[in-house]
Design brief:
With 284 residues, the protein is of the alpha/beta class. The protein is built from ten helices and 13 strands. The chain folds into two domains: 4-29 and 64-153, Rossmann fold (3-Layer(aba) Sandwich), CATH 3.40.50.10170; 156-280, Hypothetical Protein Tm841, Chain: A,domain 3 (2-Layer Sandwich). It has helices at 16-21, 46-55, 67-77, 96-104, 122-137, 142-153, 166-170, 207-218, 235-248, 261-267, and strands at 4-9, 24-27, 30-33, 36-39, 61-63, 83-88, 112-117, 156-161, 188-194, 197-204, 221-231, 254-258, 272-280. β1 (4-9), α1 (16-21) and β2 form a beta-alpha-beta unit. α3 (67-77) packs across α4 (96-104) and α5 packs antiparallel against α6.
Length: 284
């Protein structure tokens, strides 16, 4: 059992088997669909969610977990460790970091809990969490685990292709990418995250070209240590990109992950994302 326990939220999109392998506890974001409340990834499967999303006039919404959801996790982990690191989705896009921090004050047992704003989301946040868990497993102290997480924060980057920015706009998460709105062209917008906020990268006339753009981005890095492809609804498209990346990086672990309902609420079913852990060689 590592000295330092690692916690994250469901926006990290960690495949369940990866969370289990590294002993990472995942606190679910809440998804609201009309009057129904679901715990992300527990009460609502991605298949059911996207089916309902396509057929529903009312759009879903997300809300942060209650402080007690984090506090209960801290209490449980404090039975076997005195040190916990919590890595959350960027505070620019969610109040989860604030709630996870508030929950520290509710813990009765003596335990040091450090809450880190990853400044990222999805598998960029996931890679940071995995790096922290690896360090903890290797016997690192809590401060060393935090240092490793911060180092990894500087070595991850991601690009996401959409078929529409409608969901991002409605959910108020569009940031600087609103520059893309109002275009009469049928475009495939591509966005990135910088300093925890969404920004526009480019747009392509066809979906195939948008996927090529993601591939070019991933292959522009040096010393690649990890790759992730995430998708909302189209597994064939995602698998195709994984195969292309695998032929380029046969020795690198490539995670294939399904974006959770908490992400799908703000992106819609046409999302595909590539995330890289490595060293930037050129700007894309």
């Amino acid at each position: 059992m590592p000295n330092v326990a690692i916690v994250t939220d469901s926006v990290a999109d960690l495949p369940p088997e990866v969370a289990e392998e590294f002993g990472i506890t995942v606190v679910p974001i809440i998804v609201r669909f009309g009057a129904d409340l679901y715990r992300d990834g527990l009460d609502l499967s991605p298949d059911d969610f996207y089916k309902r999303l396509r057929g529903s006039r009312a759009l879903p919404a997300t809300s942060v977990p209650p402080p007690v959801a984090f506090a209960d996790v801290y209490e449980k982990l404090a039975e076997r460790t005195s040190e916990i690191v919590v890595i959350t989705v960027t505070s620019r896009l969610s109040g989860t970091h604030q709630v996870a921090s508030q929950a520290v004050g509710l813990v009765k047992k003596r335990c040091r809990v450090e809450v880190l704003d990853s400044q990222w989301a999805i598998m960029a946040q996931g890679f940071i969490t995995i790096a922290a868990a690896r360090a903890g497993r290797a016997g690192a102290s809590i401060d060393e685990v935090l240092d490793e997480a911060r180092r990894t924060m500087r070595r991850v980057d991601m690009r996401a292709a959409f078929d529409t920015l409608e969901y991002l706009e409605r959910g108020g998460r569009i940031g600087k990418a609103q520059a893309f709105l109002g275009s009469l062209l049928k475009v495939n917008p591509i966005i990135g995250l910088k300093d925890g906020e969404v920004y526009p990268v480019g747009r392509e006339r066809s979906r195939a070209k948008a996927i090529d753009r993601l591939y070019d981005f991933a292959t522009s890095f040096g010393n690649v240590e990890g790759l992730a492809v995430e998708y909302a609804a189209d597994s064939d498209e995602a698998n195709g990109l994984v195969q292309r990346l695998r032929s380029e990086y046969p020795q690198v672990p490539i995670y294939l992950s399904r974006t959770s309902p908490a992400i799908g609420t703000h992106t819609g079913p046409g999302l595909i994302v590539v995330t890289v852990l490595g060293d930037r060689q050129s700007a894309h």
